[in-house]
Design brief:
- It comes from Clostridium polyendosporum.
- With 214 residues, the protein is α/β, with parallel strands linked by helices.
- It has two domains: 146 residues, Rossmann fold (3-Layer(aba) Sandwich), CATH 3.40.50; 62 residues, DNA polymerase, domain 1, CATH 1.10.150.240.
- 46% of the residues lie in helices and 14% in strands.
- A six-stranded parallel beta sheet has the order 5-4-1-6-7-8, sandwiched between helices.
- α1 packs across α4.
- It starts with a strand and ends with a helix.
């Protein structure tokens, strides 16, 4: 029986895909004078920035992070929306008594800001961000931390995300996992991780919870 749902944030609950892509593109162009293809940039989605950038530079790592964050935060509030169906889905889960967590690689201050703009902040019991754990996605520690804070066992939790990193995080923690087919990332990579469930839209999470309750 599922007692808690752990959601990735960007690309799963809120649509910030264009903002994130543009922020990466800006950082690479302005600091390293590099123009990377979209497919390469999207592989970096969902990781803490340090791990995304260190492959390309060590000397200018902090400058890359600063460039990304400056561009991102300046435009964030105008490019941050809840996906259709997210608010209804979260409301139904609350009515069902399901505990809710966001497990994100985004800094807590910006995660909270985005959730408030999208109108979903008050629906969540906890937020687990990179500040809360030593290890990050795809390691299981963020999901385990969320389960600990919510007071549920990992096997009683469902991890939902748009990235293979989310699926691996849930699997490494011992949670059930659910991929979202509305991802803008490489769907084949998500499928290769063999999540327990796939959903076409946010409201489909309700059906997954009801199926596991049988």
């Amino acid at each position: 029986m599922i007692k808690a749902v752990l959601f990735d944030l960007d690309g799963t609950l809120i649509d910030t895909n264009e903002l994130i892509f543009n922020s990466f593109s800006h950082a690479f162009k302005s600091v390293l004078n590099m123009e990377l293809p979209q497919k390469e940039i999207t592989t970096m989605f969902g990781r803490p920035l340090k791990y995304s950038f260190e492959k390309y530079t060590q000397d200018k790592l902090e400058e890359m992070i600063h460039s990304y964050r400056s561009y991102n935060e300046e435009r964030h509030d105008n490019m941050c929306f809840a996906f259709d169906g997210v608010k209804d889905m979260l409301g139904k889960l609350k009515e069902m008594g399901i505990k809710l967590a966001v497990v994100t690689s985004k800094r807590k201050v910006l995660a909270e800001r985005g959730m408030k703009i999208a109108g979903i902040y008050e629906m969540f019991d906890i937020i687990v961000s990179p500040e809360n754990t030593e290890k990050h996605k795809p390691e299981g520690e963020p999901a385990l931390k969320a389960c600990e804070l919510l007071g549920v066992l990992p096997e009683e939790a469902l991890m939902v995300g748009d990235s293979h990193l989310d699926i691996l995080c849930g699997q490494n923690a011992g949670c059930k996992t659910c991929g979202v087919k509305y991802t803008t990332l490489q769907i084949k990579e998500l499928e290769a991780r063999k999540p327990d469930f796939f959903i076409d839209n946010p409201l489909d999470v309700i059906s997954v919870i009801e199926e596991k309750a049988v």
